[in-house]
User: Fold this.
Amino acid sequence: MADIAFAHLPAERSGMRSYAEPVNPDFDLYRLSEEHDLLRASVRDFALDVIAPRAPDIDETGEYPWDVHEALKRNDLLAVHVPTEYGGAGADKVAHCIVIEELARVDGACSLIAMVNKLGTTGLILSGSEELKQRYLPLVASGEATFSYALSEREAGSDAASMKTRAVRDGDSYVLNGTKAWISGAGVSTHYTVMAVTDPDKGANGISAFVVHADDPGFSVGSKERKLGMHGSPTCEIYFNDCRIPADRMIGPEGTGFKTALKTLDHTRLGIGAQAVGLAQGALDATIAYVKERRQFGRPIAEFQGVSFIIADAGMKIEAARQLVYVAAAAAERGEKDLTFRSSAAKCFASDVAMEVTTNAVQLFGGAGYVRDFPVERFMRDAKITQIYEGTNQIQRLVMGRKLLG
Assistant:
């Protein structure tokens, strides 16, 4: 197994420049650092060695890949985003995107293991008290704890502010009742960041965020959804039936939960973009190898102009998507306050590219692309969700339009 040393990631450990520091724009805008290149090579070796042989079986059985989970944990890939002051690797946001991209390049479901953990903990990092961060983030950094994110409900998806899950103050506790839907990692994660209504008269300003433990009384997990793709990543409803939690598990002040949810998505949509780039690149890798070998009319089909144009367009659009994701991630690392347009654009464009590239990959494989003997149909099925979760691409276009039009 390829082992990954993360000593080169944190700026505190190696002198690696942080994007929060002044930069030379002529250098940083157009190419990654040597440390980022080394990270990519390490994660790619890991993914090819550990995940690629398992990917078809994970997809076929739909079972959660605990062996991959443990390998990610051993190699500090389970929560690379956790800051060093809490025992984490302290990877910058570009580095995190590289990790997700390279994992998704061989299997989308396995990339979700790390993605879900970041999604579930970003609100805590952005808005949680220092006491709450000290309580949970070291556990996440060590792999002892993993987090999922619980915002959506069946009737509150794109319109998340209309959620019905309630949290009522009762002395030193809050009592939660309601249901959350489409929760990635449900049943596997040990902790959940949950948005619930604490003051129904205040609309979005009456929503608060909480940390819920999987073993809290009154918390339960429903059956797994039967999904088109991402079979190795469980998605379930979660239920709160008089689920009592201590009041000190609230993330940020009361009524700020929806703002925390939106800030979280501004950061984590970059991971969706990176995942989409990885899925598209994996499909393109497989397609290039196939069209060079597949012969029709006495020559490899790669020599036909129509095929070469599809390959060229795929490579061009993947690289454009990759750069859009990286520039947005660098902006997030610099601490730019308004990330909404950049993150929406990166997620939307990259996921549309992923769907186009993977669909064309299946087409170039012909009949072979429609069967599970080759990976491109899995990449296509996995790519579809990137256009849907963390805000559909129609919502992303609505968000971008509002930003541009003021």
The first helix runs from residue 11 to 14. Confidence is low (pLDDT under 50) at residues 7-27. The beta strands are 147-150, 166-170, 173-184, 191-197, 207-213, 219-224, 235-246, 250-251, 295-296, 299-300.
